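fyi for ur records
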Amino acid sequence: MIYTSLSLLNTLLNDFILQKDPLNMLVVKPVILTTIVDQENKLLQKSGDFIFMSLINIEEETVGKSQLPYFKTPDDKLNIVNPDIKLNLYIQFAAFSDKTDTDPGAYERSLMLLDQVILFFQYRNVFTASQYNSLLENNIEKLIVEPVSLTFEQLNHLWATLGVKYLPSIIYKCRMLTFRETVVSHEISLVKDLKIDEKVN
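which gave:
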């Protein structure tokens, strides 16, 4: 579910940017779904105009969480299962360019790319299973994407954790994915009648 959701957003965002082509880009995919640096803190992409799309946090959605460890079948039996897990994804989009010998320069190009991310999610921030087969096939009813604001302190901690110097970026919250494993344990029958023993000694 996580990969399906991120892959869909990545594909749609790439199509949007390439259609507008704000920087006359020659690359096929300006938005790459990856971490920014490798395990040695080296940039994974070192040349060109790119947006790093990275999953930076996963949060459990506890509002409305079911506490019932079962669900009812059509034949009035109860399958014992753990409650669904509902998750929100935090996605960072960080823009990068190394084209310092062009006009506009690298920093300006990064900002122009970041503009396109913001414009895309302003234009469309709800994605439903009725629109996209990949969501339907993975039992994802709906994705809702909204921007998240961090304090300067939170930003400092985030980029220190990522192990890279700050890049122009924005963070979005994507909610929500419902995880439900279909493998179930034993069944129990519903109690339909109560019988009272009225024997008198």
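The CA atoms of residues 22 and 112 lie 7 Å apart. thats all i got for now
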